Amino acid sequence: MGRRVVVTGLGLICAVGNTTEEVWQSLLAGKNGVTRITEALKTGVFKEEDLVKFACRIAGEVKNFDPLQFVEKKELKKMARFIHLALAASDEAMKSSGLQVTPEISTRVGVHIGSGIGGFDVIEREHSNLLTGGPRKISPFFIPAAIVNLAAGQVSIRYHAKGPNEATCTACTSSAHSVGDAFKIISRCDADVMIAGGTEAAITPMGVGGFAAMRALSTRNDEPEKASRPWDAGRDGFVIGEGAGILILEELEFARRRGAKILAEIVGYGMSGDASHITQPAPEGEGAYRVMMNTLRDAKVQPEQVGYINAHGTSTDIGDKLETVAIKRAFGDHAYKVAVSSTKSMTGHLLGGAGGLEAGVTVLALRDQQIPPTANLENPDPECDLDYVPIRSRRAELEYAMSNSFGFGGTNGALLFRRWTD
Questions:
Q1: Annotated catalytic residue: which of 112, 169, 349, 384?
Q2: Which of 112, 197, 278, 286 has the lowest tally of Cβ within 10 angstroms?
Q3: Confidence (pLDDT) at 422
């Protein structure tokens, strides 16, 4: 039996808010953060004359974000936007937890922050410099600004966290795996605290253009706030989002000794591989089914005990159908009683950052006994017939809640949290 692990701090930033409570209240109110791409125009990542050429011109951007609140000006261009967002979310998570990393505990505090893509903005910027000015114009900070593990690296440097330092890159499951792996690191006694989650900032020409070329994105450009509509019959693809979700995980007795406020307990983590297709889920949602079963088995929890699932729910035709099938297989008759919602309907899809953000949302659902809705679910797909909490949030008595994440390459992760009442 491993050590018990609890959540003591959260830092969430995405299209509907720049702080955890702003994000949470926006989600409960059904506020939508998807708009025409504007922030990337302000920063010069996109040019207006180029944006109009794209089939998809909408995204879930973080708005009015000032990285200078978290990063010194001289350091700004040494980091891609995904690192800026990770530092902002980590700053709030650490402050909300009240944790101080002293020299006495520094080697027992680790960092595990995932990202599916890393610094696309910097990669594109430096490639342009190469083409226009030759190799001498490439910044010496190009590599450390762009590679995936530098979010975890920069956070560990900032907080003098000398424990395990990792970064998962498993597509859209990246930060679910980061949180789950961090949970197991503490459980097996390799650390007492982990700063864990994910971050992503891929709203760039290559990011948007690449997913659009796969026909994966919604092209509802005239109604951006209606574009992400999981399980709705009119869904036509996902909406790319950006942001970060960071959780402070602590061993229970360590948290108690320092008088930490506990938000929830993490009790289960599962992984699986589809071994089926590079982008489509396995037939009958087989991999998604197994990852949920593995998570329940890890937690020693019965399906009937789970009251809420924050679904992967990306608003793609086949993905939404097969997640529905997988939930029915895993939960049996209880599938029609468990509340399921997709907050991607409001935030867009944070890709590698989604699991961290949505794990935080799941914790808040347990804390406040409130289920956030699925926005835009106006005309349900007949093949998607579960309780998706359409349009409006709902009060509920929740003991356990699950967060699902599935990624390209058939990589799956799920997390199970328990309400904290002690």
A1: 349
A2: 278
A3: 76
**Would you say the CATH fold of 269-419 matches that of 5-257?**
yes
Active-site position among 14, 56, 169, 172: 172
First to last CA, the chain: 20
Closest CA to 315 of 245, 390, 377, 408: 377
312 is catalytic: yes
pLDDT score for 342 = 98
Q: Which CATH class is domain 5-257?
A: alpha beta
Cβ(9)–Cβ(97) under 8 Å? yes
- Cβ atoms of 23 and 17 within 8 Å: the answer is yes
Active-site residue among 84, 112, 177, 312?
312
- Is position 127 annotated as part of the catalytic site? no
**Angle, helices 150-159/81-97, rounded to nearest 10 degrees:** 40
Angle, in degrees to the nearest 10, between helices 174-187 and 354-368: 60
- Nearest CA to 361 out of 215, 122, 179 is that of 179
Question: Domain 269-419: which CATH class?
Answer: alpha beta
Question: How far is residue 196's CA from residue 335's CA, in Å, rounded to a whole number?
Answer: 30
Instruction: Select from 112, 72, 101 the least CA-distant residue to 246.
Output: 112
Mutual angle of helices 286-299 and 317-331, in 10-degree steps: 40
Q: Is 349 among the residues known to form the active site?
A: yes
Angle at 228 between CA 390 and CA 171, to 5 degrees: 115
Cβ atoms of 12 and 360 closer than 8 Å: yes
Give the pLDDT of residue 46: 94
Domain limits, the chain: 5-257, 269-419
Mean pLDDT by 10 residues, the chain (422 residues): 94 98 98 98 94 97 97 94 98 98 98 98 97 97 98 98 98 98 98 98 97 97 98 98 98 98 98 96 95 98 98 98 98 98 98 98 98 98 98 98 97 98 83
What values do phi and psi take at 42, rounded to 5?
-60, -40
Which is nearest to 174 in space by CA: 93, 112, 84, 90?
Answer: 112
Q: Cβ distance 311 to 412 under 8 Å?
A: no
Whole-model pTM? 0.98
